[in-house]
Design goal:
With 237 residues, the protein is an alpha/beta fold. It contains 5 helices and 11 strands, in the order βββββαβαβαβαββαβ. Strands 7-6-5-8-9-2-1-10-11 form a 9-stranded mixed β-sheet, with helices on both faces. The chain has a two-stranded antiparallel sheet with strand order 3-4.
């Protein structure tokens, strides 16, 4: 996992790690205890039922088991499919899309080992970003997790483009996951083992440092810190 905190949205095309966490200060950090803890009590996982989305769900589950969080599993039914349906077929098309989404959601929830983690499945119509934004507000979500590669993985579409949009627009903490984390032994619960904290020593990075330290204490991971000194090449030109 790579943790950073930004005082501005991340830009498209930024380097991607298998698991990347962007902290915006929405988590509750309690350092008045013997061991400091971070509380993400309500985690939203956005899914398009792809392997990339499944990886995000497994990663969120790993955190939820330790943090005792509730998971909200969200699928947005996009309006684009109506572009190919005539006015006389729109209601039928919408009904079929809802039935398909409900069946896929049931299949997904039935295939997950929840291990006592409370969850709620949500189906909403509309563009992904507005649906995610409204769901975050309505359910007091503290962390949103999603995959960076969707069904059209070779072209980095669907979840890939959605991830970039959420990065540009979000004012809440996000957790992005690539499908590579699913390359593990079948049937073995995913566990976070290593955290890389990236810092530029600015005030907003201090908040992320506290979260990284708390997660390290709670998850039992190996924590490393990284600061990159960029070489100024302007005088060498």
């Amino acid at each position: 996992m790579c943790i950073t905190s930004l005082n501005r949205p991340i830009t498209a095309g930024s380097p991607e790690s298998p698991v990347r966490f962007m902290f915006t200060g929405s988590a509750t950090v309690r350092d008045d205890l013997t061991s400091p803890v971070v509380e993400f009590s309500r985690i939203l996982v956005a899914t398009d039922f792809s392997e990339g989305a499944r990886a995000a769900l497994e990663c969120a589950l790993a955190m939820s088991r330790r943090l005792k969080s509730q998971i909200f599993l969200l699928h947005a039914i996009p309006p684009q499919f109506l572009e190919y349906a005539g006015p006389d077929r729109s209601e039928e098309t919408i009904a079929r899309a809802k039935d398909y989404a409900a069946a896929e959601m049931a299949r997904l929830t039935g295939s997950v080992d929840w291990a006592g983690v409370p969850y709620e499945a949500i189906l909403q119509e509309g563009p992904v970003w507005p649906v995610v934004r409204d769901c975050v507000a309505a359910n007091r979500i503290e962390l949103v997790a999603f995959g960076t590669w969707g069904r059209a993985a070779k072209q980095k579409m669907l979840l890939g483009s959605v991830a970039e949009e959420i990065f540009r627009m979000a004012d809440f903490s996000t957790l992005t996951v690539t499908p590579h984390v699913m390359g593990r032994e079948s049937g073995v619960a995913l566990e976070l083992k290593r955290i890389l904290f990236v810092t530029n020593f600015k005030p907003h990075a201090e908040r992320a440092a506290r979260v990284a330290y708390c997660l390290d204490c709670q998850q039992g991971t190996a924590l490393a810190a990284l600061h990159v000194v960029e070489e100024d090449t302007r005088d060498k030109a």
